[in-house]
Every structure is written in C-alpha cells, then in structure tokens.
Fold this sequence. Notes:
This protein has 151 residues and is an all-alpha fold.
Amino acid sequence: xxxxxxxxxxxxxxxxxxxxxxxxxxxxxxxxxxxxxxxxxxxxxxxxxxxxxxxxxxxxxxxxxxxxxxxxxxxxxxxxxxxxxxxxxxxxxxxxxxxxxxxxxxxxxxxxxxxxxxxxxxxxxxxxxxxxxxxxxxxxxxxxxxxxxxx
Length: 151
C-alpha cells in the first residue's frame, strides 16, 4: 500500500510540475529499490515489508535533520530550507507520530509486558518498541524515555 502511495504521489507531482516533490519521491523510491535488492539474498522476493519501509523513511528524516544542523552551522540556509522541505514531503508517507505522552505510555506498557527491570534490559525493550511501533514513534526520543524509566 505504501509503495502504491509513493508511486501515486510521484505521478501527481509530475503532473503538477512540483519539482521538489518529484525529486524527493524519486529519492525515496531509489532507496526502496536498493533495500529490496539487498533483501533478495535473505529470501525476500516481493520487496521489504511496510515496517521496513517506515523505518527507512524515518532514517531519511533523521539524515535530513542532521544535514539541516550542519547547513545552519555553515551558514547555508538555502540548503537547510531544501532539507526541511524534503522532510515535510517524506512525513506525508508516515503515520501520525506519537506525542511525548503516548510515547511514555507505550514505553511503560512495553516495560511491564516484557518484565524489564534495569538498564541491562534496554536493548530488549527498544527491540520490542521497534517491532510494535515502527513508523509511529521517534526511537531517539523513546530511547531517552526508556533510559529514564529503567534507570
């Protein structure tokens, strides 16, 4: 379904002559194709799963946020603006992100379910969160919440 959304968005952007959206969606589709090819040796012939696509989109957003910080430090505000526009386009394909309160509730629930006791269980907790909430949670922020809850 997400693949169809991406292809439909590309067609609509091309018809609307929206060059920023066209280039961004093409970047997403190229990254998706690379991941599909990389997954073939693991026996994944139909392409990566929706969860893996959502994870890929989140990592693309993270990369762009890091680039924005570097561009702003270097005084290249036009490039930082371009990256921000790309983030907005990529976010269109992600489900609504959890609020800080929802993240805290999900972390507490997951910790209780898996019986995590200390920071030694952080990896197990993060793995469970990624499995359950891929694409809906910022795992950098969730990691801090998990540390706080287990610490």
